[in-house]
Amino acid sequence: MPVGTVASVKGVSQDILEDLGAQIILGNTYHLYLRPGVKTVRKMGGLHRFMSWPRAILTDSGGFQVFSLNELRKVTEEGVTFRSHLDGSAHFFSPESAMAAQIGLGADIIMAFDECTEYPADRERVRASMEMTLRWAERSKQYFEEHKHEVPWNPLPAASALPDDDGERTECRQLRTGYCQALFGIVQGGMDRGLRRESAERTIEIGFPGYAIGGLSVGEPRELTREIVESTLEHLPKDKPRYLMGVGTPEEIVEYASLGIDMMDCVLPTRAARHGLLFTSQGRISIKQARYAQDPAPLDPNCGCRVCQRYSRAYLRHLYASNEMLAQVLNTVHNLSFYLDTMRRVRHAISLGEETRFLSGVWSRPKPQASNDAG
Amino acid sequence: MPVGTVASVKGVSQDILEDLGAQIILGNTYHLYLRPGVKTVRKMGGLHRFMSWPRAILTDSGGFQVFSLNELRKVTEEGVTFRSHLDGSAHFFSPESAMAAQIGLGADIIMAFDECTEYPADRERVRASMEMTLRWAERSKQYFEEHKHEVPWNPLPAASALPDDDGERTECRQLRTGYCQALFGIVQGGMDRGLRRESAERTIEIGFPGYAIGGLSVGEPRELTREIVESTLEHLPKDKPRYLMGVGTPEEIVEYASLGIDMMDCVLPTRAARHGLLFTSQGRISIKQARYAQDPAPLDPNCGCRVCQRYSRAYLRHLYASNEMLAQVLNTVHNLSFYLDTMRRVRHAISLGEETRFLSGVWSRPKPQASNDAG
Fold first, then answer.
1. Do B7 and A315 touch (CB under 8 A)?
2. What is the C-alpha separation between A368 and A374, in angstroms, rounded?
3. Which residues of A touch B50 (CB under 8 A)?
């Protein structure tokens, strides 16, 4: 999922995102809550209409970003008090208010309010944090169930006015074609396999249409991330979307997909692009380097994106060196194209089936001693 | 002509410029000479190939921008010594080196090296400056005639190797389909009608395939600009392009076109867009204003551009207020669309002919006491 923090994937217009084949983008509740504000987005008909994006949107719960405001927040059982990074004003997020915000924004998939446990943390701290996230998950679900009809794009009357035997009322069978959003739960538990298992099982008990793995990519070694992802996945239902939050490099998203992850989001392709770091089929390119100043080749000869089809490395290097806005625009378009192409190849490999997927070249055959968990 | 200073119309990719119907864009020789440098552009096959722009390009002579570097330049009969605004390095532009640079860049239309006379200036100073511009025009033409075969995209052998009776050799009948660029002369003469006439007549004597009016929009009152444009046009041939440099607002470009101007360039649509000032059929809009925060209407209900067709004022206001890159991109696309639409309406009005053009609504009928110079 490309990240569109404040209802815009930085520098890329929505028609180009459509051309790139993006099926879903992510918005950040914390940022949108501060600016333009939930009230404005609700009044404009929800995020889809506000930003003119007819495809799917997922919003995070605001939790992760509030927890990133180290100096500016205070956590209690009730919720989190924090100060805006924009103007220092005081705000409060609870599971209930985070749900209210996300219902008001009206994304297709919204996330339970969780605490992203810091790393490193001792077992007691991780357990306490996990327990609070579980209580917050229950509160998130309860508030959501009571208020899910309040989405801005809801063409139907309030739930209480519906007949009781309307089976669809409490089911989110179809995104945005019905009248409610899908609320996903988030598994925490730090780097402890036991706590991860417990978090997964008790989150499943609460019951959600999809599950995310949170609290990773917070500074731990890469190998540990993989180990926790792999062990947590064993305890998540295979018939529901499994979402790994905040990863990763192109190699990582292929690897996590091979483990069974269905959804990922990361600022890497867009943020790296703005700093001139480009992902290609031949490896990473730092386009600012003088070696590209007179290079007539496309950025990636194997890429079909509108940037690689039209411009040379020399031109892209010139734009970047000259601090031209178009550098950031074109670099972002290419990196998104590369990521979305990567996921298309992953889906193709999956569609080939267990026996033949390695033929696609996306995944290498597992080494004999490694377990093959590709699911 | 949209301005693409360093081979990019800021924030707008070339395919969108094509969609907007831009037939020609302007590049600034001073900036391109400094970065990426003429040598690089030449090696990449010229500006068209370097920036992947198959339509027409005009480069200025560098004179105007060098003259804008008040503190950093020194003018002699030979040329101008100046310091780069980027790194303070010393450089020298003469009529010959400015031609060499523009031939190396390989635009379709290039400009003679002139001195843009400051305003205000006394008659003696204006005459001396005009005389130097005339001497520089001769030197520009002479250098161009001797070197015009050196364009980077020239598929033909050097002029000396061509048969003498090749009538096309010294004629620039077809832009970029032949082998030479079109070098335009520039009329100076300050705000003095007599000197403007003399400058025009003596520039025509030197002989160019097109003529520009320079040295205006340098701080003089708007009415004076119009008066000098009108009086200068009387002395320029109607069968050759007449180019007014550095104007103007949408109202002004309509007015100057009605006087007989064929070409104009201005940073106003693109620069104003980046500052949130948008031109619409209903007047100017400063999109940063809070009044647009929940306005669901398109920027301009009469505009068919991709911005007005897809986004609301509320969204554009949000992007601008959030300092999102997409604000500058979308605002620029709209303003360029508005300008190019304006010129399309002007061309349509002209095609209607002398008697009926006022029916188009682009031009109002002249007041009885005003002279009608529309040509």
1. yes
2. 14
3. 312, 314-315, 318
Q: State yes or no: is A60 an active-site residue.
A: yes
- Whole-number Å distance between alpha carbons of A48 and A26: 12
pLDDT string in tens for chain A (375-residue length): 999 999 999 999 999 999 999 999 999 999 999 999 999 999 999 999 999 999 999 999 988 888 887 777 899 999 999 999 999 999 999 999 999 999 999 999 999 999 999 999 999 999 999 999 999 999 999 999 999 999 998 654 444 444 444 444 444 333 444 568 999 999 999 999 999 999 999 999 999 999 999 999 999 999 999 999 999 999 999 999 999 999 999 999 999 999 999 999 999 999 999 999 999 999 999 999 999 999 999 999 999 999 999 999 999 999 999 999 999 999 999 999 999 999 999 999 998 886 666 656 676 655 554 444 443
Instruction: Answer yes or no: do B325 and A328 touch at CB < 8 A.
Output: yes
Which tokens is B209 given?
Answer: 């395939």
Single out the catalytic residue among B108, B114, B265, B300: B265
Chain A neighbors of B10, CB-CB under 8 A: 324-326
| A302 in contact with B, Cβ within 8 Å | no
Q: Where are the alpha helices (H) located in chain B, listed in sequence order?
A: 14-20, 29-34, 38-43, 47-51, 63-68, 95-105, 123-147, 193-206, 222-233, 250-259, 268-274, 313-321, 325-352
Q: Which of residues 2-31 of B touch A (CB under 8 A)?
A: 6-8, 10-15
Any chain B CB within 8 A of the CB of A310? yes
Is the bond leading into A120 cis (omega within 30 degrees of zero)? yes
Structure tokens at A248: 């990763």
Residue pairs spanning A and B at CB distance below 8 A: 112
Whether B10 and A310 lie within 8 Å, measured CB to CB: no
Q: What is the ipTM of this complex?
A: 0.91
Q: Please check whether residue A331 touches B, CB under 8 A.
A: no
Per the annotation, the verdict on A192 as an active-site residue is: no
B293 near A CB under 8 A: yes
CA nearest neighbour of A53 among A28, A33, A23: A23
Interface probe with A: pick from B316, B319, B320, B324, most Cβ of A within 10 Å:
B324
Strands of the sheet containing B73-75, edge to edge, are B73-75, B80-83, B90-93
> Rounded to whole angstroms, how far apart are CA atoms A81 and A233?
32
| Residue A238: Cβ within 10 Å count | 9
pTM here? 0.91
Nearest to B250 by CA among B215, B285, B289: B285
d(CA B86, CA B6): 13
Interatomic CA distance for residues A267 and B260, integer angstroms = 52
User: Touching check for B324 and chain A: CB below 8 Å?
Assistant: yes
Using CB atoms, pick whichever of B10, B11, B319 lies closest to residue A8: B319
Contact A59, A110 (CB under 8 A): yes
Give whole-number Cα distances, B154 to A57, A60, A89, A297, B46, in Å. 51, 56, 63, 21, 10
